[in-house]
Amino acid sequence: MSNAIDVFVIGGGPAGLAAAIAARQQGLRVLVADGARPPIDKACGEVLMPDAVAALARLGIFLPAAERSSLRGVRFISSGASAEAAFPSDTEAVSIRRTVLHRIMAERAAALGVGLLWQSVVTGVRGEEVRLGNRAIRTSAIRTSWIIGADGANSHVRRWADLDAFSHTKLRYAFRRHYRVAPWNDRMEIHWGKRCQGFATAVSNDQVCVAVASSNPNFRLESALTEFPELGARLRGAEPTSTERGAISANRTLRRVWKKNVALIGDASGTVDAITGEGLGLAFSQALALANCLKTNTLIGYQAAHRRLALRPSLMARLMLALDGRPIVQQRTLQVFRKHPEIFRRLLALHVGALSPIHLAADGLTLGWGLLTA
To answer: Helix or strand or coil: residue 88?
Structure first.
């Protein structure tokens, strides 16, 4: 027995739910399947940059103030030196537990009439047919016009659709844990060490999310904190409130993100290094672009839209990773940011999409000269 729908989304994480919501807003009949049981968690810094918050609003999702924390800017810290900049006026980033975000998005999808099949394993796709291995329903196959792969960096859909050709930068390894401690500021903190980066953000009035990323797969969070004296002092004696979770991070670019009636979204369609904090925001914007293509009954425009959306986050990832493992460059960069705070502000505005990349040329010259003379 087969059921006919418009869109079948494989993967029910934030990227898949965003794709389902955006497609449903276009009036399409949508079904989502995921082998996990909600809420679905994943190791991440749990920050939504201002452009991600704006994309969520276009999906009709507004995060309750009681369940998230507001972030007003970014603070860089390295060897006792620091520099900070605020987000552009009238914008803010937010931090929110990944599980809370997933619950809110799943509720929004259900309210719009999206069908949600949890603990439902997709075993393959063929043409317009999606095969399921779910005992809870009688159908073993569902017919659909469009198939969206939102099943993560190790996507099965990508392989089934023969879209697995990609290039990527050196892999990095990230680990995350929460601590019960009162937040000490309203900034997203990025701590630079000799071998890794650390990230700290408030996710509630008594919890802070801490993550580290390095190129060493054996470099865990506790040992990494020794590279960040200020952060380590803040967390001394704090109670861990979650288990340590890990994930792989890299800049990964696919040659193609769609073929025939299959499109990829989120990490399945390529990734930017987690250092940018742009992973979720990029997936939400991709969902809106993909839904517009589905509305016109063709995926031809999705490739160009996907590449355009990835340009800025990829550029910022390369710029930030240029500091990785270079303590002298880190120190000189912070000195330039302190001496020319407008450069840091404009780079942050570029990061969140509030400023055109054309401004980068002049700021790059100033930053380069500052690095040479610091």
So the answer is: coil
